Amino acid sequence: MRLDGKVALVTGGSRGIGRAVAIRLAETGAVTYINYHRDENAAQQTCSLIAEEGGVGRISRFDVADYERTQASIGDIIRENGRLDILVNNAGIAVDGLLVRMKESDWDRLIGTNLKGALNCCHAVSRVMIRQKWGRIINIASVVAEAGNAGQAAYAASKAGLLGLTKSLARELASRSICVNAVAPGFIKTDMTAALSVQAKEKILEQIPMSRLGTPEDVAGVVAFLASDEAGYITGQIIRVNGGLYM
Ligand code: NAP
To answer: Which one-letter DSSP state was computed for residue 188?
Structure first.
């Protein structure tokens, strides 16, 4: 399973799941662009880890929620390389809390980043992928998109929206050999879940048949497979990586 000659962009590739995905894609041979929004050091670190393994990583800073900046930055990547083959929409934020207490600005920020952000990136890559007659778009959703979760109404809605986006784009782009899939992780050990209390983690673990949280690498392997030629007949699917939490 090699991605030599391919160009990939991982949004939110600086930390957590995105970092593991970027490293894996670069290890597999793709020139990999690491997008981030705020944490320059983390993006540099991901780039260094890729270089240590002999891969090619490049940094592209933009806020996925900003339509104009996203089009311009992805346009630059396409001009630099003459192509863009793999887009992993991974950038995401979580703002937890019961709906009665949620502020409108939190809702807007969540939808703006998690859902509109992915749409912005899909819009920026779809023309070049159509021209290439090859492409892979992989949207990182979440177990809560399908299962729901108290205290995560807005987050779950943003991720459920990603599933609709995935299936619709899969239908629009299939005739050009562009596969669009979603990966729905369960609870994965990253900064996002680090804030959970010990009690909350114990409660979650009780519900996971595999009795452990996932690792970013558990997700990265699946994304790398979906990005490959071997996954060329898989489109419009939701691949769940959750230790059996939701079946
Ligand atoms: P994380 O450790 O908090 O990392 C989030 C990444 O997204 C960072 O690289 C961050 O960059 C970037 N980002 C955030 N807002 C951005 C924006 N507006 N524009 C560009 N980049 C932005 O998160 P994670 O746990 O790895 O999660 C990655 C994805 O998986 C998210 O979509 C999340 O919803 C999803 N997910 C996670 C879990 C889990 O258990 N961890 C489970 C299911 C789904 P900066 O630091 O520079 O802002």
So the answer is: B
